[in-house]
Amino acid sequence: MNQDMLNQVSWQIRNDLGTNLYADNFQKVGKSQARYSFDLNLSFPVCHVDSISKQRYVNYLVLKNVAMGNLEKKDNYAVNLPKFNEVNKKVKTHLSALNEESEKIILASSSNKIAKLSEVDHYLKPISFIMGSMFTDDSFENDENIDPRMKKYLSLLSDLTLIEKSDDYYTPDKLLVSIMKKSDNLKEFKENIYAYLLDNAYETLRDVFNFTFIEPYIKLENSYYSDSVESNKLIRQTKQDMLKRFKIRYNSIRPYKFFTYLNDLVNIDCLHKSDSSYIGDDEIFETVSDKRKLIKFAAVYG
Amino acid sequence: MTSLMKDIMPKIVDDFNIRVKLFNQNPDKLDCVPACIKSVIDTAEPDNIIEIESVCKMMQTSKNRLGTQLKNLKNLNRFLEKKSVHLKFYVPEKHELSPLRIPALVKEVKDTQLPVICSVNSLALADKRCNIINPHAILLSGSQDGMHKIKYYDPLLEGVQESTTPRFIKSWSDVGKGVIFVKKYLQDRLVV
Asked: Taking CB atoms and an 8 Å limit, are B68 and A19 in contact across chains?
C-alpha cells in the first residue's frame, strides 16, 4: 500500500459515503499486488449534557467493520465501495444490536433492584406461591390436577435446577437452598429468586410467559446509563431532559407513563433523585461500564 | 456595554482579522461539516440567514450517522445560489493537502478572510488518543504568533480552540487531510 492509494480510498469514502467513515485493515486479495480489500469503520460523535452544570461530554462511538470495500490498481486506482443506502442500513443494524446488548447488560446489572418492583411479584405470582411453599415447608405438592400454567413455571424452575421433582413433591435443589440460606425472610428470598430468574431466564419469561412489563424500565435505564457510559461519568439530568434523550434513543412514549416508570426506578434505587435532577447509581454504572467494554463489535473510546 | 447587552449580542470571536460567528451545535445533531458550513455563511454573510436544517437537508446528513457525503456539496451550492448567498463550497481537484502546505493554507485563510473547513483527527483529544481515528471537521480560522499557534473552531466543543502547529500537523497527517475550500462571489464576480 502506498500513500496515493490510501489517499484515493480516503477521498472516495468521504465523497461517496460520508466523512465519518474510514478504511482499516487492508488485506491483499490473492497473490496479486494490485488488489486489496479493506474494512469500513465508522466513528461518530456523541454528546451528552449535564442538565445542572451544562457541561458537555463529547465522545466517539466506533463501529468496526460495518462494510467492506476493495481497491484495484489498473491504469489508475479503482475504489469499489458499497452503496450509501446499504452502508446506512448496516449501521442501523449495528446500532440496534448494540442497543439490545446494552439492554441485556442493564438487566444483568440491576436485576437485584428490578426484582424489588411490586409488579414483578404480581406478574410472577405462580412462582411466588411455589417459593412460599418451599420457604415454609421445604416442598411443593406435585398435584396432577394443577393448572397447566403452574406446570410450566414448575418446569422452568426444574430446568434452572432450582427445584427437584420426586413422585409426590417438588423439593429445593442445592442452588435454591443456597439462595434460601442467604435470605433473611420470605420477601427477601422471593426477591433473590426473581433476580436470579431475570438474570438467567429473562428471554423465556418474556417469550413463553409474556413477561414484558419490565421492558420500559430497562429501556429507561438503558437510555440514561448509555448516555453516562458514553460520557464516562454519571451525568445529572432533569426528567424533561431524560424524556428527550429517551425519545431520541427509542420511539415516543407518553410523558405520564415515562414519569411513573422514572419514579418507580427511584423507589428501587436504580436511579437517585436530587432536587430537580436525577443521577444514576454508582454500582450499576461501574458494572455497566465494565461490561460494555466487552461488547466486541463496537467500542466507545473515552 | 451592559451585561444584558452582552447576553443578547451574537457570540463573536475576534481571531486576527477574521470574525467567526459561532454556531451553537445542538448536542443531538452533531453533524460537524454542516455546522462548519453554517458558521462560514454566518461569518461571510451575516445578513443572509440560512438555517442549519437546510444545510443538513442539502447535504443529506440529517438521517444517517455516516457524516457528510462531500459530493452533495453540489446540491448545497445550487441551494445557496437560489438563496443569493455569494459563497461556493468545494473540494479541490487535488483533494489531499500535504501537511507542508498548512502554513500556506493559514496564510490563505488570513488573506481571504474566509475560514476553511478541515477534516482532521479530533484535535481536542489528540493528546490522549493519537492512535485512534476519529474523523472530525473543524473550521480553521487563523493563527497567532506566526505559525506557532493555530486557532480553530470546533463545532463539537462549541468554541474556539487553540493548537500548536506540530500538533495540528500530526492530527492532519494521521487521517484527515480533507479540506473544503470556500469561494466568495461579489455580484456574480469571483473575488476569492
From this structure: yes
Contact A49, A55 (CB under 8 A): yes
Residue B160 sits at the chain A interface (C-beta within 8 Å): no
Quick one: pLDDT at residue B1?
A: 39
pLDDT tens by residue, A63-102: 888 999 999 887 788 899 999 999 999 999 999 998 999 9
Q: With beta carbons under 8 A apart, name residues in chain A contacting B173.
A: none
The answer to whether the beta carbons of residues A66 and A91 sit under 8 Å apart is yes
CATH 1.10.10.10 fits A102-112+213-301, yes or no: yes
* Domain parsing of chain A, residue ranges: 3-94, 102-112+213-301, 118-208
Q: What are the cell numbers at A42?
A: 465508522
Give the CA radius of gyration of chain A: 25
Strands A277-280 and B149-154: unpaired
Q: Do A45 and B156 count as a contact with CB atoms less than 8 A apart?
A: yes
Q: In the CATH scheme, what is the code of domain B29-183?
A: 3.90.70.10
* CATH fold match for the domains A102-112+213-301 and A118-208: yes
Cα distance between residue A170 and residue B188, in whole Å: 89
Those residues whose C-beta lies under 8 Å from the C-beta of residue A75, and which sit 6 or more positions away, are none
Q: pLDDT (tens digit, 9 = 90+) per residue, B47-78?
A: 888 998 999 999 988 778 898 998 999 999 99
Residue ranges of domains in chain B? 29-183
Reported ipTM: the value is 0.81
What's the CA gap between A243 and A221, in Å, rounded? Answer: 11
CATH T-level assignment (fold) for domain A118-208: Arc Repressor Mutant, subunit A (1.10.10)
